[in-house]
Amino acid sequence: MSAPAASAAASSPDSPVAPARAAWRELAGRLVREKPLGAAGAIVFALFLLCGLLAGALAPYGINETHLAHRLEPPSLTFLLGTDQLGRDVFSRVLHGARLSMIVALLAAGFSTVISVVLGLLSGYFGGWVDQLTQRFVDAWMVFPGLVLLIGAISIVGPGLGQIVVILSLLYGIAGSRVVRGAALGVQGQTYTLAARSLGARPLYVLWRHVLPNVMPVVLVLFTTRLGAVILAEAGLSFLGLGVPPPAPTWGGMLSGDGRTYMYVGPWLAIAPGLSLTAVVFAVNVFGDALRDLLDPKMRGIR
Amino acid sequence: MTQTPDQKPPRAGAARGPSPQDDEPLLVVRDLSVVFPSRRTVARNGAGGGSGSGSDHGAVWAVDRLSLEIRRGETLALVGESGSGKSMTALSLLRLVPEPGRIASGEVRLAGEDLLRLPEAAMRRVRGDRIAMVFQEPMTSLNPVLSIGRQVAEAIRVHRRVSWRAALARAGELLEQVAIPDARDRLDAYPHEFSGGMRQRVMIAMALACEPELILADEPTTALDVTVQAQILELLKRLTRERGTALMLITHDLGVVARYADRVAVMYAGKLMEQGDARAVYARPRHPYTLGLMASVPRLDDPPGRRLVPIPGQPPDLSELPPGCRFAPRCAFVHGRCREERPTLLQAPGAASGHLRSCFGFEEPSGPQGAGAPARAGTPAGEGTER
Q: Is the pLDDT confidence value at B76 over 90?
């Protein structure tokens, strides 16, 4: 050790994680500038998220509060989106439906992404028999149509929020692992993972420190597309009566139950949750597309 | 394991005995083979199992029974064409041969300890700490999403129990030593803010981080501008000399060899062709392949107007090697024995001890170990066939 003194040591004592924030800010900036539609989608989604979060405070009436004198009333100033056949305020119920949708969306999309990342990274990075095993399992899993699996699983474990989240997470998580695997394969071929190993790093360390951060763009896009898919799937289940059971207001349930029955007398019953659903899913998908466009060409490094 | 391509080379006498220093070399590689099994298991009529052929069922022997040694503080240049197994040799020393490939046989002794027998955990402690590597592509050998300082610091922290702060301070020092301007202010910079040459400096800093005994530099300057190449090599040479670090410099640039190497090992199609003191090999190559290499590049002391003579033909398909010497099909001095038997690495007749080659001799017609006849070693590979 020839020593030009360790005096100037204090130049960069900061935690080594800080610069990630700048990258996020830059990404947000580019989203607004280059993909206004995607940015709008993000805002719409954020609004729904906020609605869900503040449903309790925003809703003018309770979800099961009935106004028997005002059954099946069209939208008015007192009842912004009208009332249903029991005189419940549709606006309040849609807000609370948003809360349920958002809970399912965030949880299921989150868990499914985690599952995808873990499976995909292990499979892509270690290769060999690990890869063979997981990927053949994924293949077998994907043989079943999603809806069939969903209905089958729910009819076994019974409907409920927890069950739906678990099943949706598994369903989308396992399928999504391929996407992560592909990205991990690409990163694994880069010299820096080899270089890290040549310096004595452990495989899991390399995976965590070098592979994972470099597949993050893909993971981010995967997460946003999952959001939309999961919201739709939950609504579908509720529509079929397999979602969160009735007293709880779900968009899918509102569409199928009251919405369908009173389609002609009170079309607003179906329009409100239907439009909400469409808007959220559209917003999320547009946002996800924009993210993918922004991140994809940069997949190979330089950011 | 099933591989018995050559006669057992009498290595012990050939290389170790006459070594001028009597202290043990830092790294001794013996009969190292790296094989990539082939999917084509269709038996390709075994090419005469009796006389021994390197290929079994089209498996590729990327490195075939390679033996060499590196002394402490010495620079050994490993020279050869693309695909001759140079990089694979370096990776196999670290036991990082990429997947379907594996090390089939041999030993790699680092200060007496056989690395090929170490458990993986112990091998990890060798990587980076005792043997470090600098890769060919500086553009992809740094992680794009981590700051430079972080990456160098991590190279330290893998092996040393030091705080982040201390590791970063040391990283700053290292970056300064590899002559990165404003090193300490650039710890937070990201790889894409650096040029190729600068990145290679960072890679060198990472390799030096734990003061290894040996650095493997795999064509460290190939991807760089010519003007930067010399700087990087000078840097590498100076730093390794200062620290007494041994350097294995993989290159295909004979100019680099002449300037920086103490000794040279020439590889062809996975096999070592010639090994010896750099000056001696330059002054008088003892193998037709080396001779051909030298005739194919210009030299400063060439008479004006000398024509460069390429080696005719192409390197062989490693999965279908000729039964005899693997250079035989392209050799200008080929004779009958070359096509049937495989030469082993032996003391070159008439050369200084330790100058080895794997050739039956091309100075004298068919004289297997012909005691160094006057030879036309100077003539480039021309018409001279020896039949």
A: yes
Give, in degrees to the nearest 5, the angle at Cα B378 between B374 and B381: 115
User: How would residue B45 be classed by pLDDT, with cut points 50, 70 and 90?
Assistant: very low
Fill in the amino acid letter for B56: D
A25 located within any domain: no
A-B CB pairs within 8 A amount to 122
Q: Supply the CATH number for residue A256's domain.
A: 1.10.3720.10
Tell me if A141 is assigned to some domain: yes
The per-residue pLDDT for A272 is: 86
Residues of B in contact with A200 (CB under 8 A): 124-129, 158-159
Buried b (16+ CB within 10 A) or exposed e, B265-277: bbbbbbbbbbbbb
**Complex ipTM tops 0.85:** no
pLDDT of residue B21: 46
Residue at A168 is within a domain: yes
Count of domains in chain A? 1
Where in the sequence is the domain holding A216, given as residue range(s)? 31-60+78-300
Does A189 contact B at CB distance below 8 Å?
Answer: no
For residue A71, being part of any structural domain is answered with no
> CB A303 to CB B145 under 8 A?
yes
Instruction: Report the predicted TM-score, pTM, of the whole model to 2 decimal places.
Output: 0.76
